[in-house]
């Protein structure tokens, strides 16, 4: 029981540390941080679309290198960046793609024989590799955006692009609610740990877990109303205000021209086929 409580508290603390680290990275003087949040949001969306248009190994390799360079220039911690993106794009996506490797799903030239009639095809392996790289690149751009841009700036940029207030309000309240909910859960488990002496019996452990789930569920309803009322009392009307006003600068124009020129070169080099 002690290990369960300790792991839960440490897990919640780790989540808060990630939130604080994200704000610290957003305040750094990196490439993405120097751009207007509207330009960041729009460019990341376009980069994801462009990355998913390609169906060539060479094209995806270039996009992969491009995302890594962008992460370095934006001062993103590379260790956690690669670990987290790889965990999703390689492990989980790879598991889903396992059936497509074999000849029973995708017929083609043999690459690795499993049995006499079952083997991994070259086409299946290539398609799976491209799909994993596409997933890695797309997640990389999203990760870079979320770390280099504060949440309030993302919401304000979304409102600039005419996202309905109800959607932006839902996203904003959800984040605030999750943060407060984690704080309540952390305090509950810390209170339990500070009052625990010796080993607990199995029955009391199960009773505590069940009661904790019930208490959190009851508090969640009241907490949601408290969060919204607190926002209303502080002047919230669906619009977002930041200390720095959005303004297109010279660096934004250079960024736009560079990316347009770069992908136009890629497009023209392959006769307008975008390396497909």
From TrEMBL:
<keyword id="KW-1133">Transmembrane helix</keyword>
<keyword id="KW-0472">Membrane</keyword>
<dbReference type="InterPro" id="IPR051611">
    <property type="entry name" value="ECF_transporter_component"/>
</dbReference>
<dbReference type="Pfam" id="PF02361">
    <property type="entry name" value="CbiQ"/>
</dbReference>
<feature type="transmembrane region" description="Helical">
    <location>
        <begin position="166"/>
        <end position="190"/>
    </location>
</feature>
<dbReference type="InterPro" id="IPR003339">
    <property type="entry name" value="ABC/ECF_trnsptr_transmembrane"/>
</dbReference>
<dbReference type="InterPro" id="IPR012809">
    <property type="entry name" value="ECF_CbiQ"/>
</dbReference>
<feature type="transmembrane region" description="Helical">
    <location>
        <begin position="125"/>
        <end position="145"/>
    </location>
</feature>
<protein>
    <submittedName>
        <fullName>Cobalt/nickel transport system permease protein</fullName>
    </submittedName>
</protein>
<feature type="transmembrane region" description="Helical">
    <location>
        <begin position="253"/>
        <end position="269"/>
    </location>
</feature>
<keyword id="KW-0812">Transmembrane</keyword>
<feature type="transmembrane region" description="Helical">
    <location>
        <begin position="85"/>
        <end position="105"/>
    </location>
</feature>
<feature type="transmembrane region" description="Helical">
    <location>
        <begin position="41"/>
        <end position="73"/>
    </location>
</feature>
<keyword id="KW-1003">Cell membrane</keyword>
